[in-house]
Design brief:
Length: 166
């Protein structure tokens, strides 16, 4: 084994420990690893920063910003109150949420529709005194189901369609 391979294995082991125990925030740990790989010369600056040029990074960052803005502006409280006022039973609530996220996921990215409805669902669970896991897992599955219904629902469908065209 070369010295670089030993170094990488040790670094990988250290990364796993830091990610598992969360001694530092995960994003900070990843940034430190990037700096270590750059400083050691294993990665060139072009290789290290090529991931930041990917469009999906900006899309995901935008989704998180939008979701956080909806929560901080109080829109999630309004949506949660509106949904709870129309649905009386927990089973009806679950059905309504699943239908809503599946419908949104069919015409928007399933990642974005889930990210937008996630804080709403957490607020609904809190107000309805229901465990969040009872609503979040079905929400995720309904999002995946809705995304697979149309070409634009998931990035996988878009990539597959592009491959088929070629």
């Amino acid at each position: 084994m070369t010295l670089e391979i030993v170094f990488m294995l040790m670094l990988l082991l250290l990364i796993i420990v830091f990610f598992t125990l969360e001694w530092l925030p995960i994003d900070l740990t990843a940034l430190i690893v990037l700096i270590i790989l750059l400083g050691s010369g294993i990665l060139s600056p072009q290789q290290a920063f090529s991931g930041f040029a990917n469009d999906i990074i900006f899309i995901l960052a935008s989704i998180f910003i939008m979701s956080s803005t909806l929560t901080k502006s109080g829109v999630t409280h309004i949506l949660a109150d509106y949904i709870l006022s129309g649905v009386k039973k927990n089973n009806g609530l679950l059905f309504f949420l699943m239908t809503l996220v599946a419908s949104l996921s069919a015409f928007f990215s399933n990642t974005s529709s889930t990210a937008i409805l996630l804080p709403v669902t957490l607020k609904i669970a809190e107000k309805a005194k229901v465990r969040a896991s009872k609503l979040l897992m079905p929400l995720a599955y309904a999002s995946i189901l809705g995304g697979t219904c149309t070409l634009i629902g998931t990035s996988t469908n878009l990539a597959s369609a592009g491959l088929i065209e070629r």
